[in-house]
Specification:
Chain A is built from 23 helices and 20 strands. Chain A starts with a strand and ends in a 5-residue tail after the last helix. Chain C has 7 helices and 2 strands; from the N terminus they run αββαααααα. In chain C, helix 2 runs parallel beside helix 7 (144-170) and helix 5 runs antiparallel to helix 6 (106-131). Classes of the chains: A alpha/beta (584), B mainly alpha (278), C mainly alpha (183).
């Protein structure tokens, strides 16, 4: 179907300083194959995708699609055969209404009206868009937009789909549904699908995985073959799914488990026959929940029955938060967790005084922030908020300028201001001398995010709110930033509030966590208390850590299996206890 | 400063009630509007403008748009006119052959019945033009307007005017409006949280505050443009040549009838104005 | 005339910014004079001309013009000669000025483009209003404070945005040390 032979590609190839993106890549994709293209940012996978979709052309080497050689002359024919789905649907949708956007491609092909109509209808049916076929795209949810984007490509009737990192920026629930769609398209239409991603756990049931690194193909094989080579993957900073590691640890401890395990279900099948019906007694002892220290000092922030609605008193009224009560003490690390539309972002906007409650009260240090004459500006200085994707909100040219925005606004003396910038950059792990004159746009995504956090820290807040701080980064960026946030939260003595949709290593830091659902507080307590209700959390769209998710799946057939598990070690030990067969 | 643009701001003013005017073909409506506007400029006084007034009343009634809704749109217009019309009256200069008998006069300023009449005539004309455009916008969706424009201006392609490309530019702009509104909202929220107050300050201070919002807005938007260029190429867009359309438009007998009536009234207005100057 | 995909998309995005500045009222800065507020809605057209040439400037200006005609609230812009024509000229004049001065100093050129583009808008809109009898010549002085504010804002914003975008396109990573040694 697609043959790539000895392809190299340079950006700015004719310019003074060409940048190499691909070196001597050879690859072939068969018709009807479901292939994953894995690798870090900068590994060349997106460049390769653009070459295969004929929106860029190789500097050296040759590509052919369905026997046609890819050149600028044949580009139009190639593009109708190879459909490209972009990372963000907003980047590729063009028309205002669903039906018009799906028709855009076929219209460009100059097809007769009846044919366009028929193709649009069938794409709408396949992607289950009947109910929104004439809706305005701007009124759709992110998941719906993605389905429209795919339908638009589908209507071109391509023989190959390239999905360019569609799961990086979206919530895990949506990512799973997108992957189901990819499988369905392949199974029903027989098209080949190339899914580009950072995430190993998404591709365990693919036909084939191609791993890229530094502009070359590093590995090419079935998931079983690839994941068996975990050392080589680790050498380039890629990780096998946690469940594969669990399988390996258990095997090393003498359990008869085949290599490699790819899914939690597979692990469950392997373990259930080994399990004693009654677990050994130790588990019960280890199960005792940690007792939260009761704080008797007055809370820093006290929210009482807070409610806020958007477009209040209009037919379009939607609830932001309702009847939320919670209190946060000085120096505490608090996690606010929940799926999409849970009200998390609304809550932090209310805390910061960006929105005014419709009922209820918020006290900061005992004073009602909605009382007359309250200095809301001073409140915003005390509570620093790092919004989602803060890197898009940087506005100064250089790092130093952006970080110094708050000190300069407060007209602090130059020396104080400089010291603050230095300290803030240091706190986010960026060297002052190296970075202060660096242009903001030239930073990587993760670095930009650090700069944005430093900008808030330079305002010397008493409390730091981080709204989904690692969302939308690649796995390497995620783990680096998570480490940083961990250090900040533990060393800075700030009160920290972390908002997220996953019980991950960040949520785990929290002394106390609140789970929100549909604008209200659903659960609260320590993380391990929450994990006792793993199934409920799963149902309200909260993601569990990989280990807890495996535990949840195991529990479905081993009812006494605990779900209060956060780490690999813990999971392996627990499984070990369940599987220890009495010798006698 | 509002943080709810994306929820409160609506672009395009289409009001979804099913009326004869709503169902008319967009091209017919655009032609009618062009014709009414042109003929309004041909009127010369209160007599010749009467047929235009008749059209306005006719459209208002048949469109089923509540009169109150239409009137609410006049608030800002009246504010502007409250500034403009007195100027017109005070600085009235009579055309040749018109006798002026002022109530009051000082330097070049005067108040005369002729001046007042001319001011009121201007006001009427402005209101009628405004009403005509508003009725088009109330009864026609943006998509029908741009589709209609594409077909209507089709003959200009012969003069090598890139009609399809112009309409596509408008489509791209309309696609980006809601996205950029969300973006702007996010930028303002982030700035507000960093201690900037957008609702205070004089001209200079406000300008200073708006610049840090505008720069990322432009830079991010231009970055998104780069991605959309690739996306349009990947979706086989190659300009208007050889392109077909899914949507079609049909001229029905009601359309012809409506256009005839409007033409009749509008042309008679222009004729009276030109011939009799009243 | 041939318009390519790049010009369509960039002009569309800039036109969208003009519309957004209008509908959210962000594009109006209150000026203490009779006509209310200074506008910055014409700036995208100037930036289009500076960054991508006259075609993009003209197209972005046309979108701004059509929008101000269709979404008019003042009653003054229903006539396309008042609302659309002057806005088409913005891209043309500001591009000319930019092109003429670019070689000397691109910041000065961008500022000059901002000034000339703004004046084009003001002069032709006011001129058309006078020609159509909507504005008495004597009312012109009341517009001057507003026009001055618009000129200054446009010059500043054009320079900063043009610089920002060109910086991104240039690929350089580090700024040079400033005179006072701060950032």
């Amino acid at each position: 179907m697609i043959t790539v032979s000895r392809v190299s590609f340079d950006y700015n190839a004719n310019g003074s300083n060409p940048i190499r993106a691909l070196t001597d890549v050879s690859l072939s994709i068969r018709a009807g194959e479901l292939v994953a293209l894995l690798g870090h940012n900068g590994s060349g996978k997106s460049t390769l995708a653009k070459l295969m979709a004929a929106v860029m052309f190789p500097t050296q080497g040759e590509l052919s699609v369905g026997g046609t050689h890819v050149t600028e002359k044949t580009a139009f024919d190639i593009r109708r055969k190879v459909g490209l789905v972009f990372q963000r649907p907003d980047d590729q949708l063009i028309a205002n209404r669903v039906i018009d956007d799906i028709a855009f491609g076929p219209e460009n092909l100059g097809l007769p009206r009846e044919v366009i109509q028929q193709r649009v209808d069938s794409a709408i049916a396949t992607m289950e868009l009947e109910s929104i076929r004439t809706a305005q795209i701007s009124s759709l949810s992110g998941g719906e937009r993605q389905r429209v984007a795919i339908a638009g490509v589908l209507a071109m009737e391509p023989s190959c789909f390239i999905l360019d990192e569609p799961t990086t920026m979206i919530a895990p629930v949506l990512a799973r549904s997108l992957l189901r769609t990819a499988h369905a398209l392949r199974d029903r239409l027989g098209v080949s699908i190339i899914h580009i991603t950072h995430f190993m756990h998404e591709v365990t049931d693919f036909d084939r995985i191609v791993v890229m690194d530094g502009g070359s193909v590093l590995m090419d094989g079935t998931p079983k073959e690839i994941f068996a080579r975990s050392e080589e993957l680790a050498a380039v900073g890629l990780d096998v799914p946690l469940v594969t590691k669990v399988g390996r640890v258990l095997r090393s401890r003498g359990l008869p488990i085949a290599e490699p395990i790819l899914t939690a279900e597979e692990l469950r099948t392997a373990i259930v026959p080994l399990c004693s019906t009654v677990p050994s007694m130790q588990t019960a002892v280890l199960q005792s929940p940690d007792v939260p220290t009761v704080r008797t000092d007055p809370p820093f922030i006290d929210v009482q029955n807070a409610s806020f609605s958007y477009m209040k008193d209009t037919p379009l009224e939607t609830i932001g938060i309702r009847n939320v009560s919670c209190s946060i003490h000085r120096g505490q690390i608090v996690a606010v967790l929940g799926g999409t539309q849970a009200g998390k972002s609304t809550l932090i906007e209310c805390l910061n005084g960006l929105r005014t409650l419709h009922s209820g009260r918020i006290f900061v240090d005992g004073t009602d922030i909605h009382s007359k004459g309250y200095d809301i500006g001073a409140l915003r200085d005390r509570i620093g908020v790092v919004f989602q994707q803060p890197e898009t909100q940087l506005f100064e040219e250089t790092v130093g300028k952006d970080v110094s925005f708050s000190p300069r606004r407060k007209k602090l003396p130059a020396e104080t201001s400089k010291a603050l910038v230095e300290r803030s950059l240091h706190a986010v792990g960026l060297d002052y001398q190296t970075f202060r004159l660096r242009y903001v746009y030239a930073l990587s995504g993760g670095q930009k995010r650090r700069v944005a956090i430093a900008g808030i820290l330079a305002g010397e807040p008493e409390m730091l709110i981080l709204d989904e701080p690692v969302a939308g980064l690649d796995p390497r960026g995620r783990s680096e930033l998570a480490l940083l946030v961990k250090r900040l939260a533990q060393e800075s003595h700030l009160t920290v509030l972390i908002v997220g949709n996953t019980i991950d290593e960040l949520a785990e830091l929290a002394d106390y966590a609140i789970v929100m659902h549909e604008g209200g507080v659903l659960l609260e307590g320590t993380i391990s208390e929450l994990l006792n209700q793993a199934e409920l959390l799963h149902d309200v769209g909260l993601e569990l850590s990989e280990a807890a998710e495996i535990a949840r799946v195991l529990k479905q057939q081993i009812p006494s299996f605990p779900t209060t598990i956060l780490h690999l070690e813990e999971l392996c030990d627990t499984i070990g206890r369940f599987c220890t067969q009495p010798k006698e | 400063m509002s943080l709810e643009f994306s929820r409160t701001v609506t672009f395009g003013q289409y009001i979804n009630v099913n009326s004869v005017v709503h169902r008319l073909d967009a091209r017919i409506k655009m032609l009618s509007v062009a014709c009414v506007m042109f003929c309004t400029f041909m009127t010369r006084g209160f007599v010749s403008i009467l047929p235009i007034l008749a059209i306005a009343v006719l459209i208002q009634v048949t469109s089923k748009i509540p009169v109150g809704y239409t009137l609410r749109g006049y608030r800002l217009l009246l504010r502007t006119m409250l500034f403009i019309i007195p100027f017109q009256i005070l600085f009235y200069r009579a055309p040749a052959g018109v006798q002026v008998d002022p109530y009051w006069q000082w330097w070049v300023l005067s108040i005369s019945p002729q001046g007042i009449s001319a001011g009121l005539y201007t006001l009427t004309r402005v209101i009628l033009l405004y009403h005509t455009i508003n009725m088009l916008m109330f009864t026609t969706t943006m998509i029908d307007l741009s589709d209609g424009a594409e077909i209507l201006f089709e003959p200009l392609k012969k003069l090598r005017v890139p009609v399809n490309e112009l309409v596509m530019t408008m489509t791209v702009a309309l696609k980006f409006v809601p996205l950029l509104i969300t973006e702007l909202e996010r930028l303002i929220r982030a700035q507000t949280a960093r201690g900037v107050r957008f609702d205070t300050g004089g001209v200079i201070e406000r300008t200073k505050k708006i610049v840090p919002v505008l720069i990322p807005l432009f830079v991010n938007a231009l970055n998104r443009a780069e991605v959309l260029i690739v996306a349009m190429n990947a979706r086989c867009y190659q300009g208007g040549e050889g392109r077909t359309k899914l949507r079609t438009m049909h001229i029905a007998s009601t359309d012809v009838f409506a256009l005839s009536i409007i033409l009749l009234f509008a042309v008679s207005a222009a004729y009276i104005g030109r011939t009799f100057g009243v | 005339m041939k318009i390519n995909v790049r010009q369509i998309v960039v002009a569309g995005v800039l036109g969208a910014i003009a519309i957004v500045l209008g509908v959210t009222q962000i594009g109006f800065i209150p000026v203490p004079n009779l006509s209310g507020s200074a506008t910055i809605m014409h700036i995208p057209a100037i930036i289009g001309a500076v960054l991508e040439g006259p075609v993009v400037g003209i197209l972005a200006g046309a979108i701004f013009g059509i929008f101000s005609m269709l979404n008019d609230t003042s009653g003054l812009f229903t006539n396309p000669v008042v609302s659309v024509l002057p806005r088409i000229l913005i891209g043309l004049t500001s591009w000319y000025v930019y092109k003429a001065l670019e070689k000397r100093n691109s910041d000065v050129a961008a500022a000059a483009a901002g000034v000339v583009g703004t004046l084009t808008n003001t002069v032709f809109v006011v001129g058309a209003l006078i020609a159509f009898g909507l504005l008495p010549v004597e009312a012109v002085p009341t517009i001057i404070p507003q026009a001055l504010v618009e000129v200054v804002i446009a010059a500043i914003v054009t320079v900063l945005v043009a610089r920002g975008v060109k910086l991104v396109r240039s690929g350089s990573t580090t700024a040079s040390e400033s005179k006072d040694g701060t950032y």
